[in-house]
Fold Threonylcarbamoyl-AMP synthase.
Amino acid sequence: TKWWKQSKNSSDLDAQVQEAAALLRENQVVAFPTETVYGLGADATEEAAVQRIFEAKGRPADNPLIVHVADEDQVSQLVSEIPPVAKKLMDEFWPGPLTLVLKSNGTAAENVTAGLSTIGIRMPDHPLALTLLRKTGRPLAAPSANRSGRPSPTAADHVYQDLDGRIAGILDGGSTGVGVESTVVDCTTEIPIILRPGGVTKEGLEKYLPIVMVDPALADEKQKPKSPGMKYTHYAPESPLWLVDGTDEFFVEQLHQLKGDGNRVGVIASDELAEKLDHLPLIRCGSRFQLDQVAEKLYGALREFKKSDVDLILCETFSEEGVGAAIMNRLNKAAVKKIQTC
Ligand code: TXA
Ligand code: MG
């Protein structure tokens, strides 16, 4: 696996992207940064290339991939129609952390859509990703560049930890900004439906859409999610994650008790909670009143604690407003247990 280290020098950058694009045109897979998380890219029109993504990640074949594009022409090449709602969202939010599910016209390789008649497409808001897309000249299928089940990578080093030896290369663009994945919105139904909460908030979408629904399965474990990927266990750190839902005082009590029972506990806490704790190891994930910061740091924090160091990880819960919906969706999926005040 070639790791093209982050460079500020424009001729170096140029050479890196050329090399990565050449590999992609030879049906190899290359990881690249986006504004949300690192993606693992392959030519979306080549079944053999896309197959390599599934193999490198250990991803179930029934989980479709998001296709990344550099311009709207590439969207038209992949879909049978662009409904007005989708056009509106593209104009308002692209490039950006929003994936639109549209009717596929069959141009993408069959394994990209995992046999569905629809296709998820987004234009990433990252200069390296856009340059890579343009130089490759193909739409790129790219799921998050982690081993299936692990937290998504928000730094090149995370990709390296998971996929060294399994992929052709990693384009290093430093840390990603948003930190959680894109919002997936189904635009094939009369009323658009949020299938996965993400970087673009429901409140943000509502500014431009008269009505938007949320897949009810997201709040009810017994229902089957409309997005295949949402049914899998995800984002699991090395040691079991427990969520504590309650006051800071309740958190302090629970931590005290777990330590008293002889557990080695790692804590992920907001700045506000951290001020009230006298405990190590502890990772701060920003202010609970600045959920953008929490989103940015979340996956890195989940990767920080190693099995050899802690028996379990204790993390607080956050407001579900704005990007908090995505944060809590990921934490609930990553956690094995939730402790609540009765
Ligand atoms: O921010 C992101 O979206 C990142 C970066 C790399 O762009 N990508 C990402 O991809 O998170 P992935 O594969 O980890 O998640 C894709 C999600 C899955 O939940 C999948 O089931 C859903 O999108 N999806 C893709 N195509 C779909 C379709 N046609 N219908 C419904 N859900 C779809
Ligand atoms: Mg993923």
